[in-house]
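Inverse folding, one chain.
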C-alpha cells in the first residue's frame, strides 16, 4: 500500500505565504513525477505545478512567479511554497504522484492522490 499525506493547509491573509508538504510512504520502488492540483468551490480541479524526478518543473500561468514546487527524493516528499497569495488561490490543494510500487510478485505503477489540504486566503 502507498499513501500520500499532505500538511500545511490553513487560513492565511492576502499577500501572505504558506508551504504545503506531501509525503509518500509505503511499498515504494520509485516516484516519477509529482505535482499539486487545486479545486475551488464550484470549479473543476486544475493543475498548479508539477515536478519530474529529475527536477524539471511546470506551472500554471496563474501561479508563475508566486509559487515554487520542489521535492526531496530522499524523503519522498514534494513541497509547494506559495507566496503573494490572493483570495483567488482559495481552494483544496491535492498532491499527486506517479509511483512505481512493490506488489507481492513484481512492481506496478499508478497515480496516487493525497487527501487534500484546504487553503483559505482572506482579504
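Residues assigned per position:
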Amino acid at each position: 500500500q502507498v499513501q500520500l499525506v499532505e500538511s500545511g493547509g490553513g487560513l492565511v491573509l492576502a499577500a501572505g505565504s504558506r508551504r504545503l508538504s506531501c509525503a509518500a510512504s509505503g511499498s515504494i520502488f520509485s516516484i516519477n513525477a509529482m505535482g499539486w492540483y487545486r479545486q475551488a468551490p464550484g470549479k473543476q480541479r486544475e493543475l498548479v505545478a508539477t515536478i519530474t524526478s529529475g527536477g524539471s518543473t511546470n506551472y500554471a500561468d496563474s501561479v508563475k512567479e508566486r509559487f515554487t514546487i520542489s521535492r526531496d527524493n530522499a524523503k519522498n516528499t514534494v513541497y509547494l511554497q506559495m507566496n503573494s497569495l490572493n483570495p483567488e488561490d482559495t481552494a483544496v490543494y491535492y498532491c499527486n504522484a506517479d509511483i512505481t510500487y512493490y506488489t507481492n510478485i513484481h512492481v506496478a505503477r499508478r497515480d496516487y492522490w493525497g487527501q487534500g489540504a484546504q487553503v483559505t486566503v482572506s482579504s
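The chain has a mean pLDDT of 97. The first strand starts at residue 2 and ends at 7.
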